[in-house]
Write a structure and sequence with these properties.
InterPro entries: LysR-type_TF_proteobact-type, LysR_subst-bd. This is LysR substrate-binding domain-containing protein. GO terms for molecular function: DNA-binding transcription factor activity; sequence-specific DNA binding. Belongs to the LysR transcriptional regulatory family. The chain is α+β, with helices and mostly antiparallel strands and 183 residues long. The chain has 2 domains: 54 residues, no CATH class; 99 residues, D-Maltodextrin-Binding Protein, domain 2 (3-Layer(aba) Sandwich), CATH 3.40.190. It contains 5 helices and 8 strands; from the N terminus they run ββαβαβαβαββαβ. The strands form 2 sheets. Strands 1, 2, 5, 6, 7 and 8 form a 6-stranded antiparallel β-sheet that branches. Strands 3-4 form a two-stranded parallel ribbon. Helix 2 links the parallel strand 3 and strand 4. The longest helix is centred in the C-terminal third of the chain and has 14 residues. It is elongated and about 55 Å long.
Amino acid sequence: MQPLPWTNFAPPFSRVRPIDFGAERFDAMIYFGEGNAPDADHLKVFDEQLTACIAPALLAARPIAEPDDLAGQQLFQLETRPHAWAAWFAGQGAQAPAISGMMFDQFAPMVEAAIAGLGIALLPHYLAETEISNGRLTPILRPAVAGTGAYWLAWPRMRGSYRPLMAFREWLERECGSQADDT
């Protein structure tokens, strides 16, 4: 990765609700959704892909060979992705069972709960890859199925020619390659 071409941006932070560019002073945001932030221009960064992950010890105790094996399991849910499990099951060619499991508002505690063997985490593939490569989680069934949205860069229309923002957009497009798509 090349170094970022600017130095005076505010540090990033995370929150569930989107930024209102009309009421808040931000140059840009990256968010998960449909590319519909009001009064903003957008760059599609990439589509979300989902991978279901389980702790290796839990998988050894409860083997999973097909989607039906997930019935009755603790399937962790994320507050901002209410239809994610349905999309994942569809990607497996199966109907989703009744979903029961803890509800999280962030992926980090969901990952830790899965590593602890408390249930199965449905994660964006880019997050799952790190835990899988470290051996802390194991993917189940088909990994990286289509999710329910995409990640977007959005910025206020009136700030589109702001040079640091332009440099950031260009850098992000280079890093994401052909997945990035202006809208």
